[in-house]
Amino acid sequence: MSITIKSIKGYYFLDVWIMANIVQQATLAFCKGYLNQHNDPCGRLYDQMTMAARSVTANIAEGCSRHQTSRETEMKLNDVARASLSELLGDFFSLSLQIGCEPWSKQSANYQKFNAIQLSRPQYSDDIEHDAWVHIQNERKKFALWTECADLSTRLNAMMLLINRNISMLQKMISSQLDRFKQEGGFTENLTRERVSTQREQAVAQGSPSCPVCGKPMIRRTAKRGTNAGRDFWSCSDYPNCQGTRNI
User: Fold this and answer.
1) Greatest Cα pair distance in the chain
2) Tens digits of per-residue pLDDT, 132-162?
3) 244, 213 in Cβ contact below 8 A?
4) How high is the pLDDT of residue 217?
5) Which of 12-26, 101-115, 123-137, 173-187 has the lowest mean pLDDT?
6) Angstrom distance (rounded) from CA 4 to CA 68
7) Integer Cα distance of 111 and 108 in angstroms
8) Does pTM surpass 0.85?
9) In terms of Cα–Cα distance, which of 155, 119, 146, 149 is closest to 135?
10) Per-residue pLDDT tens for 159-175?
11) Are the C-beta atoms of residues 139 and 22 closer than 8 Å to each other?
């Protein structure tokens, strides 16, 4: 596997990141419109909810930026994003309990209409920040009938459905990343393969002997410990899978 490092902001193209931005903006609008000195006198709930929403977009973006250098870190950051969404969902659910807002039934018209909304694929030019901003705003408008409704019960239900969808999207992405990690390994493993492959090519070009055990090219190494410490020897390029050696 060839290793390349790209700087493109790949998360701009991810539906899960786009949805997270919709959740963040809708959460901010909800908190500004509903939370006040009466129901949130210290502003703690406002800070908690808006910071949780911000954490989602930030961790997805950072995780995506680590994709090519640490898939393990990428999955961990995406899991942090998922945990933040779960925390935010809990806050909205608690508010629904406080005001007696019953969650929509899956058979209700609002539930089915809301869940039927699909995100459009982004079409970006080289002006990616501008195009992404426009795209997110257009996608956000699809849910505005519910997320910006004057009826508090409708807004709460819409937010819970929106967050649940975002959680589901993250779970699918993390599962896919884990499957790929199992099949291909992470950056460190692939970097090791690249290094070993290069060493084998160099060994063949230099006319090194073949391994007496498996027949693969051998690499010149220096013993680091034992009675032969400091001495060079031939080691199989497939070490540690093969322990074959030759004296020089």
Assistant:
1) 83
2) 999 999 999 999 999 999 999 999 999 999 9
3) yes
4) 87
5) 173-187
6) 8
7) 5
8) no
9) 119
10) 999 999 999 999 999 99
11) yes
Distance CA 162, CA 139 (A): 12
Distance CA 152, CA 155 (A): 5
**What tokens appear for 148 in the block?**
């910006």
- Between the alpha carbon of residue 189 and those of residues 5, 42, 66, 195, 221, the distances in Å are 15, 49, 15, 10, 21
Q: What is the architecture, at CATH level 2, of domain 10-185?
A: Up-down Bundle (1.20)
At which residue do the structure tokens 């004057």 appear? 150
- What are the residue boundaries of the structural domains of the chain, listed by start? 10-185, 203-247
Strands 232-236 and 218-222: antiparallel
Tokens matching residue 56: 């989602």
- The amino acid sitting at 127 is D
Measured N-to-C along each axis, helices 15-34 and 44-65 cross at an angle, to the nearest 10 degrees, of 170
